[in-house]
Write a structure and sequence with these properties.
Distance between the termini: 42 Å
Strand order of the largest sheet: 1-2-11
Helix content: 25-40%
Low-confidence stretches: none
Number of helices: 8
Mean pLDDT: 87
Structural class: alpha+beta
Oligomer: single chain
Largest sheet: 3 strands, mixed
Order of helices and strands: EEEEHHEHEEEEHHHEHEEEH
Number of strands: 13
Length: about 250
């Protein structure tokens, strides 16, 4: 079964002065529009209420994109998908990422055992950190999202601090690694596009790059254990992104 267990919408406004990454919980219940069949058969019909991570298995990556697009009202021109093997390869390609652990993690399910403090994670250990649920917070997927965002924040900081996003040789190595380890939409398969994106992100100050979780509430009854967007708060974020407004956290 292919499930979209990590879903992140990245938006960089036209003025390139800020960026936002909005994470969607895997247990989020959403309506899904009609999705094209990736194998060329009849389209998959729309559904009123399904768990968002199942859209990958239902109609492929395009279906996940269409579900996020329908929920947010944001047109999404680029899509990238990375699997477990790809996560390992990309973490090695950038030389690992530093994370700060507030409490020890001892998770038999993800096989992650690390003490509190600073750690540089790479390869299998980086993957385990992204996968662990029972070693952080309350063991829910919502807690795990914080790990995803810490790794991405650390990755962006490292690439910017080392000047990797302006070094053509480093960019070529990282772009090649991405092409080899990710499934990309046709709009992203040109290495020149990847170079251009890197340059655009490099112009954004680190304190103007915001990582957020979608505001959600717990469902009950037959959907217990799953979540839905908090209508007003979620729509506020969607409108900011759709209108190309800066979304920057204050102190």
């Amino acid at each position: 079964t292919n499930l979209a267990d990590v879903i992140i919408l990245m938006h960089i406004p036209e003025d390139r002065k800020s960026a936002v990454a909005l994470s969607f919980p895997r247990d989020l219940m959403v309506p899904v529009p009609e999705c094209p069949n990736p194998e060329g058969g009849p389209a998959f019909p729309a559904k009123d209420f399904v768990q968002i991570n199942s859209t990958m298995n239902y109609g492929g990556p395009a279906c996940t994109l269409l579900a996020v697009q329908a929920l947010t009202g944001v047109t999404i021109p680029y899509l990238g998908v990375i699997d477990f093997k790809g996560v390992i390869a990309m973490s090695e390609a950038i030389g690992g990422v530093e994370v700060c652990i507030s409490e020890p993690i001892n998770d038999d399910k993800s096989k992650l055992y690390i003490d509190a403090g600073y750690h540089t994670l790479e390869g299998e250990q980086a993957l385990a950190f992204l996968r662990t649920r029972y070693g952080v917070g309350d063991g829910s997927d919502l807690s795990r999202i914080s790990n995803h965002q810490e790794v991405l924040t650390s990755m962006v900081r490292k690439l910017k601090d080392e000047g990797a996003l302006t070094n053509p040789f480093t960019l070529f190595r990282l772009s090649t690694a991405a092409l080899e380890n990710m499934t990309l939409s046709k709009s992203l398969t040109d290495i020149g596009v990847l170079f251009g994106m890197a340059r655009e992100v490099n112009d954004v100050d680190l304190d103007k790059i915001t990582f957020l979780k979608l505001p959600v509430y717990d469902l009950e009854g037959e959907y217990a254990g799953r979540v839905a967007p908090v209508p007003e708060r979620a729509q506020y974020l969607f409108d900011l992104i759709a209108n190309d407004d800066a979304l920057i956290l204050e102190t």
